[in-house]
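Input:
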Amino acid sequence: MHIPDGYLSPATSAVMYGVAAPFWYLAGKRVHRSLTGKMVPLLSVLSAFAFTIQMLNVPLPGGTSGHAVGATLMAIILGPWAAVLGITVALVIQAFFFGDGGIWAIGANAFNIAIVGSFLGYGVYRLAAGNALATSRRRVVAAALSGYVALNVSALFTAVELGLQPLLFRAADGSPLYGPYGLAQAIPAIMTGHLFVAGLAEAAITGLVIAYLQKANEPLLRLSDPRGIAARSYRWLWLGLAAVVLLTPLGLIAAGTPWGEWKPAEIQASLGFLPEGMGALQTAWNAPLSGYGLAGLGLTAGYLISGVLGVAAIVLSTLLFGRWLARGETKNHG
Amino acid sequence: MANTAGGEWALAPVKKAGRGTGSRFVEGTLAGIARTIQDAVFYEELAQRPGLLQNLDPRVRLVGLLALILAVSLAQHIPTLIVFYLVALALALLSRIPAGFFVKRVWLFMPFFTGVVALPVIFNFVTPGRPVVRLLDLGSPWSFAFLSLPREIALTEQGLKTALTLILRVGDSVSLAVLLVTTSRWAHLLKALRVFRVPQVFVLILAMTYRYVFVLLQITSAMLLARKSRTMGHLRGADHRRGLGASGGTLLAKSYHLSDEIYSAMLSRGFAGEARVMDDFRVSGRDWLWLLAVACLSGFIIVLERL
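Output:
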């Protein structure tokens, strides 16, 4: 899910730095206030932990394997603000010292992975875990579920950023300059891998580490215990989550439909002339986006299909988890 | 990579292929960890060679290479992107980076993935345009559910151009990033980050993170190796995952404990919440020349392209 340099236009990269910056600033302030001097060693070692956990090969059913990101896990243990900083530092280290992942793309990667992953993961975990005991089975399930959901929403943001590239940035002759696939291709392509592989790895690591800590190191689970430090922020979490759920599809529709309509006109307007190659591509522009649908798979259809698939997968897994969860609870209290 | 010092110890178990699902994944992780440590040692060694980029002021080198990566992302034409690659290659040679390593590091791993990503774009059912190579005649247009294919499958000029642009752009960007990584000693790179007004405390966190990445990688490696050497026969996927969860949890607990100890150590050495470093970089004529060259090259090409 790390976007390397070259896939995003400089404009997108700049915007993503701008989006991530306030989160970094606030996270720095929050973490500094609550930890003061201890922030430095704690964040350092935990960023190193995030780096390391991303190297673990997690075997998945079916013989594949995946890597976890660990954003949700860190958010559950340390709270979302510290997790944002920790994962961001790990991304910076990967880009600057190991040459993995883009340098100009750090803003985008940090937003998708660190910020979305930490906050959404934390929110889903708090909602799903409720007031369950620190050692209850329900917390393990909630952790796995939140890891799964957060990673997939992170991937969705990545897919949207990549999918917007060919809509927004094309050379004078109409060929895409950066990521070449539109939303209708990028979203299903990226989401498939994350819904069925990476999401499972994240869910497994998040859930299993929490399960292990319940047995072996309970105090660690109480560091950011909901009933301890932040009970007051519980209510807006519901609102925030509802807003995210509502906004995600809305944002997709808003991002897609208008661009599909006015893009050719805009290109002409911004260039002031119609390039020679555009004539040949005119049909591709005007036809219902067959230029970046698998001819015949229109943008709207692509949205609907990927959207329905994604929502169905989440609803289905929630139902399954719910069943399992209910079973676990009766066992716990019975 | 015969010219690397250290890290081989962790590679040893990888060569002996074990049986069962579990050990295959453990070996994959162990190999990954060993490679990461080896790479870091190798990069540090390259960064100490007396080459063109290594001799520059670290801040100036960082600014110049980042500017070049930015210029690559602004370039629009394939020839421009090729020129940038040749520039990167020349810089690598002048900086005594082994050419084989430099080319392989960039084209063998990353753009393999990019190449796969770029592949579908060359066909006419993804990118309509002037056909260059006709591959297949289906007889009639074919469609199934929401998928449909035209009568003739062909590679289009527009598609090939798009794919090549993406591959070259990503290859150029990665090449320049690899140049930065292999010609900068990490301690210098950290100090250089302060040019961007990165807060001092953040630079300190980066420095300590880099240091503890290796500590935790070694702990993880030892932990997995110990577990592997005590594992007999096959391990079911679920058991293996549970084991990984335990390793992850142990690592997290160790990390937390370690940070406590480090904090005590820092306090006892007089840490008062603020980091101080000696800033002894000096910009010389050579550095100005490099900046000028980068600015001219990027500016010239970008402007020329848009004329």
